[in-house]
Automatic annotation (TrEMBL):
Predominant localisation class: membrane
Gene3D superfamilies hit by this protein: MetI-like
PROSITE patterns, alphabetized: ABC_TM1
The protein's name: ABC transporter permease
Membrane spanning residue stretches: 23-43, 147-168, 180-197, 231-256, 332-355
Keywords: Cell membrane, Membrane, Transmembrane, Transmembrane helix, Transport
GO cellular component terms given for this protein: plasma membrane
Residue stretches making up the ABC transmembrane type-1 domain: 143-354
Compartments in which it is found: Cell membrane
Amino acid sequence: MKGGRPKQTNSNTSELARREQRLAYTLLLPTFIILALIAFYPLGQVFYTSFTDKTFASGEKTHFIGFDNYKRLLSITIKELPPIIDEKTGKQKIDPRTGEKLYERAIRVLPRKPIRYRELTQFSLFGKRYVIGATDRDFIQAIWNTISFTVISVLAETILGLGIALVMNSNFKGRGIMRATMLVPWAVITVVSARIWEFMLAPSRIGFFNMIFEKLGIGDGNMVFLSNKSIALPTLIIVDVWKTTPFMALLILAGLQLIPKSIYEAAKVDGASPIRQFFSITLPLLKPSLAVALVFRTLDALRVFDIFQVLLAQKTYSMASYNYYQLIGNRAMGLASAIGVIIFIIIFGFAVLYMKLLGVDTE
């Protein structure tokens, strides 16, 4: 009797678990069917189109070209630049104005057949000069712009959002009004807020920032924020941080609300300082909410389109805005589909990395 009962109980438990599993699959079946129709099929179509030379809104015959679109987008080469030798002295020539050593032009070194490579950037290593060439330097630069934008903006938004959430989580008069007010930048449509910033960043004294800088004695009131490549991307990051920090603060605040107050009261009794409470209680218990906020915001930032398109147009691309340019501007649907697949793979990689590092799948 004693030995038989546990077996029967285990058998009943496993049967119940199998029935619950079958019920779960039955309930999820309609969702899987809908996903297959509205998500997986279009995604599969994009993958297939990326291997063709299909032209958007055209009756031209489509041909299967394999990985040619991906080769055009991602092909990179590194070549050493030969030094320019002075025939009289036999030594490398020096620029008299800058004092820098002179090298052959990149256009003479980079391959032009069967595929033409264009200069992406140059760097020096162990006393030699190298040039990096790309078949599509705009797209490679777009990948760099997007990842740089994502890393810096998400980091700044997380730090600022955490600070704002900690303040909003404390008790003070007018807390409700402040919580509603902080959401105003996030509530404004991105295109509208981008236009507002475009007016404020105007490259003359008409622009708000140029007017302020001139009164403070910084510059002559004609600072170019969006056409200068060295400050265009930092400017976009500032705009995005202003708009999206409230979203991060809201998600983090929701996590702070779930932490029981009794834990802090016990910590105070034990003599823990506010800083010790933050690192020993708040951060560990906030980790699941913080991880979810980071995942959502990072994946959203990697798909950034509207801010780049409105403020920079075709001067500087993100991956999404370059995809739009190829599809609408060049009507290269096959190439645009390949860009979409690359964006998907990068986002998927970031999502998996986040889940592994932050433990989103186990929390």
